[in-house]
C-alpha cells in the first residue's frame, strides 16, 4: 500500500491549557509544519471527571478546530491513567509488582489492566469516545492506551492470579500434563489442582523456569487481549485505522499485539550515539504489518528528560537525518513527544517543540529542518516502496521472555539483538528484522540468534526456506530449551534441529574465561556466552575451537540441505577480533547466497533502497555527523537536484541526505 502523504506530527495535550494558549499552539503548529496531533491518551479525568459522567464535547471541538486549520488527529483511548474515582479505596484494582508491592494512585499504569471493573469502565468510555469522534473528518487514526507495560511488567494481583489459573487450564487441560511439562516433582513443586499454581512472586531463591516464562507469556497474551477488546469497540463506530505505540523495551509480545491492529507504530528515544538502536526499530516495525507503513509515534526533538534524568541533546542536523532515514525505511509519520513542554508533572524537563512559556525550544530549528526535508522527499518516496531485504534477522519477544527467565549473567535481549544487528548494518547490507511468524519468501540468508526455543513451526518454515536455496544461520544461544522452558532430553538442542543441521551437540557450557579461541574463515577470536560444541555428522566443521575445554571440536558447522544449507553458530565471538570474525562469517554467506541488496557505504551512513516502477531509489543518509560515501554502480539521477550523477564514489557531508534514482537495465 502506498501512503497518501508523509506525516509530521506531535503529541498534544490541549486539556492542560487555556483557550488563548490553544489558539497560539495551532498557529505555531502551522508555522512549524506539524499537521497531525496525537491527543487524549492521559485525559480520562477530563472525559469522565466523576464515574458515569462522561462529557466529550471539549475533544470534539478540539478535533474540529485542528481540522479546520489543516491539522489531522490521532485519537487515543485514555486508559493508561485511570482517575482517582476508579482507584481510591480499591487496592484490589491496582497493579502489584513481583515483590507484592501494591501501587498507589498517580503516575501511570498504576491499575491492573486485567481487573474486571477497570475493563468495564474502559470499555464504556472507549465506546462513548468512538461514538463521539469516530466519524469526525479530522480523525485519521486511533492509538490504544499508551506504551503498554512500559513501567510495569507482569502483575501479581488477585485478578491476575484467577486469570492465570484459567489460562493454565485452557493451555494444559489436565494438571498432570502441566506437572509433566514443567517437571514439578523437582523440589516438591508438584500441584494437585490448577488453583494451587502460584504466581512467580517473592521466593527465597529462583522460581521454576517454566513457571516464570509461562507467566510472562500469559501476561503478554492478556495485554494483547485488552488491545483487541478496545479495537473491536472502536471499529463499531470508526473506520480510521488503529495502532498502539510500542517498543522492544516493553513487556509485550509485539507480534501478537499488532496481529489485531491495523498499523504498527513505536516510540524511540535512542541518542545520536546509538544509531543502531534507532534503526533496528525501523527495520523491525516495517515488518509487523507489511501491507501498511509504520509510524514513529514518539521521539524527542532534542533530548528526553524526567525529574530524575536527562539525555544528551541531539547535535544540529541529527533530527533531520533520523526523519529522512525513517521515511526512507518505510515510515509514514515522524512524530514528537511533545508539542508544548509540560509545566507540571514528572516530565516537566522533557524536550519539546515549544516551551511551556510559548517560545521555540532548542529543538525547534531542527523541527523546521525536518519539515523542509519532508517536503523535499515526499513525492519521490510516495512513488516508491521500501525494498524487501534479502537478509533477515528473526526478532522474538517470546525469546525475550526466555532470556528474562534465564539471563545467565544479566544478559539483555534488546542489547544482544541490537549488537548483532549492528554488525550487519555496518556492512552495508540491507536487512529486514522480522517477527518469529513472518513469511520467509524472498530472503536468501536468515539469521536466528538468541532464540532459546525454536518451535516446530519455525523450524519447518526455516527448513523449507533452506530447501528452496536459502542459508539459515542458527545461533548463538539458539535451541537448547523446549516450549516449556525445560532442557530437551533427546539431544542438547533438540533432536529435530540437530538432525536437520547434521550435528551432535557434545557439550553446552559458558565459554567466557575458559581460554577458548574460535578459528574460522582464516581469523581467530575469543568465544563468549553459553555455547554449544558440535561433533559434525552430515555437517562440515567450519569453525574449530583452539584451547580451552574442547580443543579440536567445532563451534561453527554447515550442512547442505536441498538447494541451501544450515549453519550452526555455537558461540559468540567476542571483542574486536570477534567483530571481525562475525563480519567475515556474515560476508561469506552473503557472498555465497549472492546477496545483491548491499553497498560499500561507509560506517555511520546508510543506504535505504526503495523500489519504483522500473527503477530503484537509493536514499543515502549520513547518521553519524562525520560524513560518508558510497559507490554508485552506474550513472544515476539526483532526484533532489535533478542532475546526473556519475558512477563511482558519492560523498555526503555531515547529516546530509541524497536520493539517487538508478534505472533498471
List keywords for this structure.
TIM Barrel, Rossmann fold, ten-stranded mixed beta sheet, Immunoglobulin-like, globular, nine-stranded parallel beta sheet, 665 residues
Task: Describe the model.
Helices cover 31% and strands 21% of the residues. The chain is α/β, with parallel strands linked by helices and 665 residues long. The chain folds into 3 domains: 7-153 and 219-380, TIM Barrel, CATH 3.20.20; 391-592, 3-Layer(aba) Sandwich (Rossmann fold), CATH 3.40.50; 605-663, Golgi alpha-mannosidase II (Immunoglobulin-like, Sandwich), CATH 2.60.40.1180. The protein has a 10-stranded mixed beta sheet with strand order 12-11-13-14-21-20-19-16-17-22, with helices on both faces. A 9-stranded parallel beta sheet has the order 5-4-3-2-1-9-8-7-6, with helices on one face. A 6-stranded antiparallel beta sheet has the order 10-23-24-29-26-27, covered by helices on one side. Strand 6, helix 9 and strand 7 (265-267) form a beta-alpha-beta unit. Helix 5 (116-133) runs parallel beside helix 8. The longest helix has 27 residues, at 209-235. The relative contact order is 0.08. Keywords: Glycosidase, Hydrolase, Metal-binding, Zinc. It comes from Paenibacillus solanacearum. GO terms for molecular function: beta-galactosidase activity; metal ion binding.
